[in-house]
Every structure is written in C-alpha cells, then in structure tokens.
Design goal:
alpha/beta; Metallo-beta-lactamase, Chain A; five-stranded mixed sheet; 6 helices; 30% helix; 284 residues; globular
C-alpha cells in the first residue's frame, strides 16, 4: 500500500518516463511523454484498470507551468495494439484537446505519413522535435518503433527490451529487426528502450511471468549492440525459430501452446507472491 500507482522519471525537461506499479498490474509497463513546442506525444496508455490519465495530466500541467503556457495538444500513440499498452485508451478519449492514433495499420500509416507499410518510415513533428516512426511487425502486426532525433533514443516497444521477446510472426520479426538495424546505421543511438523489464541483473536470468515484485532488476536501457546481437541470432535461425536465452533478453517464438503454458505460470507466480505478501502482513 506504500507503493505509488505510478513512478515518474524526468529524463530531461521535455521527456518523461512513467511506469505503472506491479501492485496495479503485473505487466508494469513503461509509458513515455515527448514534449515539443506545439504538441506532446504519449506512447501507450497502461495496463489493467489503468489510471494513466491522472499522472499524465499532472506531468503535462507541471510542464505547462514551467514553460508559461496555458495548454498543449496531446497525441496518444501506441507501440502496438496489445491490451497491456492500450487499456487506458477509453479514459484518454474523454480528455479535451486529445487525438488518439487509430489502432489499425491503415490509421497508423495515414497519421504518421508512412507511404508503404511496413517498408517505409513515417514521422511526427511535435514542434522543434521530430520523432521517426518505423513499422516493426512481428511481435504484433501493429508494432512500431519511435526514434527521437533530439535525444537519440530508440523506443522499440515489445520488440527489444530486457526480457522475453515474444514473437508471433517470426518471418516478419526478422525483417523488422533488420529494418531497425538499417534505420539506425550512421545515426546516434544513445539508448534503446522498451515497454517492460523482465530480466534480473544476473545475466541469463529473468523473473517468472506474472511477477508483481521484481527486486534487483536489469536496467531499462539497452544499446545498439543489443539490436545487432538480436539480429545476428535471428539470422542464424533462418526459417527455424527456437527459444534462445541470451545475456540480456530471451528470443521467445510464441504459439498457442506457449501462451497456455505462460498463462499457467503467471497464475502460479501471482498466487505465490500474493501468499507471501499476506504472510508478511500477518507477521507484523
């Protein structure tokens, strides 16, 4: 009960990283707020019964006061269409001065000016701040990456982060990873960040799916070297995907049977952690 529903990290005065508490939802996703002079872009809206609107409005309010502005339009975009990243959408639809990018390939393509999906990149200008938008289907058909030219940060969604990289379409995921390698060639990439942390600081070790409490986590940020490492491993697999545990993430091709197994593990993990939580409470 002492853990806040959201953690807010100010990367710099115009970029905020928000994280939903594991006590609110086990997915514990990261959300990102990019401020330009004319618009602010929110990437993803949270998991479960997400109350992201309150924390986002609070951060925007502080930014407005600091910059002596009365308002700024909000654009709500998504790293992909899975419900642990879109659960807060209905609440954001009720906010004034807010545009939500459609959760369709056509809508996303038109909004960001992506000529040919998924081969071409699009972009959005927030006012003195341009984000490139790169289609990267494979984890989800609607997956996109965002490259912030101002900070050099590449946001890869659920396609690369310290954890389990679930792949629904392996052929597309291979192409998308190569597309990110090609896009970043010759560019400054300060960090690669994603939507989750599922890896511990111990190499080759992750937390069980469903973990609400994750002490000693891996850092959020990865580097372009991790992208190259992922790309090389995928190329070696060719048309024969296999689960591969690597130092900072796991390549995890997922089919219906894999999802059923993961769901059982999730339930067992949460039962164990909740039992431990109540035992701690009773012992006080």
């Amino acid at each position: 009960m002492e853990v806040p529903d959201w953690q807010v990290h100010e990367y710099n005065p115009d970029l905020y990283i928000l994280r939903e508490s594991g006590c609110t939802h086990y997915e514990k996703p990261f959300l990102y707020l990019f401020f330009g002079s004319e618009r602010v872009l929110l990437e993803d809206t949270g998991s479960g019964d997400s109350e992201a609107t309150a924390v986002v409005q609070e951060v925007i309010g502080k930014w407005l006061r600091r910059n002596h502005q009365s308002s700024i339009p909000l654009v709500v975009a998504h790293s992909h269409s899975h419900d642990d990243h879109t659960a807060g959408d209905p609440r954001f639809r009720k906010l004034p001065n807010t545009t939500i990018v459609p959760l369709t390939v056509t809508g996303t393509q038109e909004f960001f000016g992506i000529k040919n999906w998924p081969e071409d990149a699009g972009q959005i200008d927030l006012g003195g701040r341009v984000l490139d938008v790169i289609p990267i289907p494979g984890h989800d058909k609607l997956s996109v990456a965002f490259y912030d030219r101002q900070t050099g940060i590449l946001h890869a969604g659920d396609s690369l982060y310290p954890g389990r990289l679930y792949i629904s379409d392996f052929a597309e995921f291979r192409k998308s990873t190569q597309r990110l390698v090609d896009f970043t060639r010759g560019k400054v990439v300060t960090h690669i960040v994603g939507c989750h942390i599922e890896q511990t600081r111990t190499p080759y070790s992750d937390y069980p799916i469903g973990s609400m409490y994750q002490p000693d986590e891996h850092s959020l940020e990865l580097s372009r070297a991790h992208l190259l490492e992922l790309n090389e491993a995928l190329e070696e697999m060719k048309e024969h995907p296999v689960r591969l545990v690597m130092r900072d993430f796991t390549i995890w091709p997922a089919d219906d049977e894999a999802w059923k197994s993961l769901d059982l593990t999730r339930k067992e993990t949460q039962e164990q952690q909740l039992r431990h939580m109540w035992n701690q409470t009773e012992s006080r």
